[in-house]
Amino acid sequence: MATETAQRDYYEVLGIPRDADQSAIKDAFRKLALQYHPDRNREPGAEERFKEIAQAYAVLSDPKKRAEYDARGFEGVAGFTPEDLFGGIDFQDLFRDLGLGFGLGGVDPFERLFGRQRGPRHGANIEVELPVTLERVAAGGEETVRIVRPDACASCQGSGSAENAPPRRCPSCNGTGQHVLKRHEGEVLLQQITTCSACHGKGTVIDKPCPQCGGTGQTEREEQLSVRIPVGAEEGMALRIPGKGWPAGESGGAPGDLFVILRTAADPRFERAGADLWRVERISVLGAVLGTVLEVPTLNGVASVRVPAGTQPDAVIRLRGKGLPEFGTRRRGDLYLRIHVSIPEKLTREERSLYERLRDLGADRRQ
After folding, report:
1. Does 212 map to a domain?
2. In terms of domains, do 125 and 20 share one?
3. Rounded to whole angstroms, how far apart are CA atoms 326 and 151?
4. Integer Cα distance of 46 and 340 in angstroms
5. pLDDT under 50 in the chain at which residues?
6. Which CATH number is 357's domain given?
7. Is residue 211 part of a domain?
8. Cα 48 from Cα 113, distance rounded (Å)
């Protein structure tokens, strides 16, 4: 953990008073975690902010750790390992009632956020973008994503050998995967380590490579996966599907994860701004002066909207609750109508005469 001078007060981090009860601590953590978790927030600094939030929650949610912190500050909780801090926290349970199928619900805080590596190194992660309609954001539900990723070669079962024979130790590097060149400069011993060019650092060579995969042991495979879009899914939200990334580069390692990045599909009716929707409505000069009624599309059918007399250009009319659900809450956004007044470019002789009469009437009133 960082020193006291490098940390903010844990109560300040969660935005709660020092006498907050456990329910308030949990609610504050859930709200901030949803906002800053790196599976959903790819802004610079989001991951570090989440780590700070998680550490604050880990201390304040444990009565014994909290008492030590209240009594002695950061010194009272110094020296804790990630296992000490987070070992008793069920992150999945914290977010289960929000309906998250991936991302926060499947997080391993040790490995993904605090650098603890367990066993062989994981394969690389894959990111794909998925366009989602406003209707799907509003209702949630299943969507299909297609990915192409490496898989074990069916011909050689991943061995890379044409005859499925085990690879033999590289004679050039004696199985180390590298060459070490030593030399003395005065009393100093210098070592230069380079990757073995014969086996490319693997330490083994294959005499007869599999013709199907060229000796790599892998082929590309297209796969269709079903992902569940949560109600109110935010723009840029990342849904994590464990184990659907690249295979591990070393024996016994788990594959990486697939991150499905949600993008709001373009919609000719609306523009999205968080949970709110915006739409431009055009009315005539007469409609602006005398008032009018508009039939406006919404995500739940058509709504009749009365435009009051005397409405000015670029005026905004708000339709409460006609936007999108706000993720993680019971609130719903609004639909905003920006009013554009259409000025006629060509007039008939009769129309021009009437507009001139209106102009004269206005001049008479100003006298």
Report:
1. no
2. no
3. 38
4. 39
5. 1-5, 99-107, 109-110, 116, 367
6. 2.60.260.20
7. no
8. 9
Residues 258 and 343 in one domain: no
Residue 7 CB burial class (10 angstroms; 0-12, 13-18, ≥19):
middle
Q: Which two tokens stand for residue 266?
A: 């373009």
pTM of the model: 0.61
How far is the C-alpha of 69 from the C-alpha of 66, rounded, in Å? Answer: 5
d(CA 35, CA 17): 20
- Write down the H helix ranges in 222-343: 285-290
**Are residues 134 and 252 located together in one domain of the fold?**
yes
In whole angstroms, give the CA distance from residue 77 to residue 1.
9
Element holding 297 (H helix, E strand): strand 292-298
- Whether residues 257 and 142 share a domain: the answer is yes
Same-domain pairing of 9 and 76: yes
Same domain, 191 and 103: no
Query: DSSP string of 180-238?
Result: EEEEEETTEEEEEEEE-TTTTTSSEE-SSB-TTTTTSSEEEEEEEEEEEEPTTPPTT-E
Residue 67 shares a structural domain with residue 98? yes
Burial class from Cβ neighbours inside 10 Å (0-12, 13-18, 19+) for residue 89 reads middle
pLDDT of residue 259: 87
pLDDT for res 48? 83
Residues contacting residue 224 through CB under 8 Å, at least 6 positions apart: 144, 145, 146
Q: Residue 149 has which token pair?
A: 């990723």
Q: What is the rounded distance in angstroms from the CA atom of residue 82 to the CA atom of residue 110?
A: 6
Judge whether 296 and 302 are in contact, CB under 8 Å. yes
Domain assignment of residue 98, given as a range = 1-118
Q: Hey, what are 32's tokens?
A: 């901030």
The torsion region of residue 103 among left (phi > 0), alpha (psi -120 to 50) and beta comes to left
Rounded Cα–Cα distance for residues 243 and 247 (Å):
8
Structural domains in the chain (count): 4
Calpha distance 40→237 (Å, rounded): 4
